[in-house]
TrEMBL record:
This is Uroporphyrinogen-III synthase. It is an enzyme of class 4 (lyase). Belongs to the uroporphyrinogen-III synthase family. Its EC number is 4.2.1.75. It holds the Pfam family HEM4. Pathway: Porphyrin-containing compound metabolism; protoporphyrin-IX biosynthesis; coproporphyrinogen-III from 5-aminolevulinate: step 3/4. The keyword Lyase applies. Catalyzes cyclization of the linear tetrapyrrole, hydroxymethylbilane, to the macrocyclic uroporphyrinogen III. It catalyses: hydroxymethylbilane = uroporphyrinogen III + H2O. It comes from Lampropedia puyangensis.
Length: 287
C-alpha cells in the first residue's frame, strides 16, 4: 500500500528536515526536500543587548514562550541554561522560581530538552490529546499560571518580507492571539526576535519539482503559511489547481485554498497523522 503513496515535498527550514525525513522513512513514505523558508540569526548590537538583558533577568518572568525550535536555538546558550538552573537551585535568592518554559509542540520541547532542560520544566499541549500544536492549545495547559501582573517573554522570529521592520517583532498570527489573551488576563508581555525568516534562494531543480507536483507526482507538505506565500510569490503566474497539499493547521489550509490549490487536506502535525492523510489522498483524475 505504501508504494502507492505519492512522495511528500518537505517545505520546512533546512535544519528541521532530517527529523521529518527520518520519521517518514520509518513510515515507508518517500520525501524530497524543498525548504521554502531560510532561517538566519538576528544580528546587531540591539538584539544582543536585549538577549543579554533577558537572560540576566530571567527571574522577572513567569514564563518564556518559545514559538519554534529556532527560538530555542538562537535564544538559549549554556550560560543562559546555567542562569536558569541557578534560579531553580536558589529560588529564595532569586526572588522566585525560574520561568516556566512554554512550547507549542513536541519539536520545540525536544529542542529544549536537547539543550539540557528537564521535561518537568516544560509546558506543551498534550501530544496525544491536542488536535493542534499551537498557541490556543498551549493556553489550555498554562492559563492557570497567569495572574495579574505576571510577565511573559515571547521568543520568536521576524520575517524579512514584512514591510514594516520597526514593529516586526510584535506580530505573528497565532502568537499574537496568545499575547492578546495574556494581556486580557492581566499579564505583561515582552517580545524578542532572535532569528529571521527569509525566502529561499531558488535553484533550477526546484522548478522541476513544481512541474512534477502539478502532474500529481508529489504532495506538498506545509507547516507554515509563510512557506506557501514564498512559493506562490516566486511563481506569481502559476495556477495551483492541479496541486495537492497537506496542511498541518487550519490557517495554512485556508492560505492554500485561497492560493488556488485544488486538493488540500488538513491534519494534525505529527508524522503518523500526515502519513495517514497521504495514504488517503488519491491523485486527481485527469480532466
Amino acid at each position: 500500500m505504501s508504494t502507492l503513496v505519492r512522495p511528500l515535498i518537505l517545505t520546512r527550514p533546512e535544519k528541521q528536515l532530517p527529523f521529518w525525513s527520518a520519521a517518514f522513512d520509518r513510515l515507508h513514505i518517500r520525501t524530497v526536500a524543498l525548504p521554502l523558508i531560510e532561517i538566519a540569526p538576528t544580528i546587531g548590537p540591539s538584539m544582543q543587548q536585549a538577549r543579554t538583558q533577558a537572560l540576566e533577568q530571567l527571574d522577572r518572568y513567569q514564563a518564556i514562550m518559545h514559538v519554534s525550535p529556532n527560538a530555542v536555538q538562537f535564544f538559549w546558550d549554556q550560560s543562559g541554561l546555567a542562569q536558569w538552573q541557578q534560579i531553580a537551585m536558589n529560588p529564595a535568592k532569586a526572588k522566585g522560581q525560574p520561568p516556566r518554559l512554554w512550547s507549542p509542540g513536541p519539536g520545540t520541547s525536544q529542542a529544549l530538552q536537547n539543550l539540557g532542560f528537564t521535561q518537568a520544566a516544560i509546558d506543551q499541549p498534550a501530544p496525544v490529546h491536542a488536535s493542534q500544536f499551537d498557541s490556543e492549545a498551549l493556553w489550555t495547559v498554562v492559563h492557570k499560571q497567569i495572574t495579574l501582573g505576571s510577565r511573559v517573554l515571547v521568543v520568536r522570529g521576524s520575517s524579512e518580507s514584512a514591510s514594516d521592520k520597526s514593529n516586526n517583532c510584535n506580530r505573528g498570527s497565532g502568537r499574537d492571539w496568545l499575547a492578546q489573551t495574556l494581556g486580557n488576563h492581566g499579564a505583561e508581555v515582552d517580545f524578542i526576535c532572535v532569528y529571521e525568516r527569509r525566502p529561499p534562494r531558488w535553484q533550477a531543480h526546484q522548478a522541476a519539482l513544481v512541474t512534477l507536483a502539478e502532474n500529481h507526482q508529489f504532495i506538498w507538505l506545509f507547516s507554515s503559511s509563510e512557506a506557501v506565500s514564498n512559493l506562490t510569490t516566486h511563481y506569481p503566474a502559476h495556477h495551483w489547481r492541479n496541486h495537492s497539499a497537506i496542511a498541518t493547521h487550519p490557517r495554512i489550509a485556508h492560505t492554500l485554498l485561497h492560493a488556488g490549490f485544488g486538493q488540500v487536506v488538513e491534519t494534525r502535525p505529527t508524522p503518523e497523522a500526515i502519513a495517514a492523510a497521504a495514504h488517503a489522498m488519491q491523485a486527481p483524475s485527469a480532466p
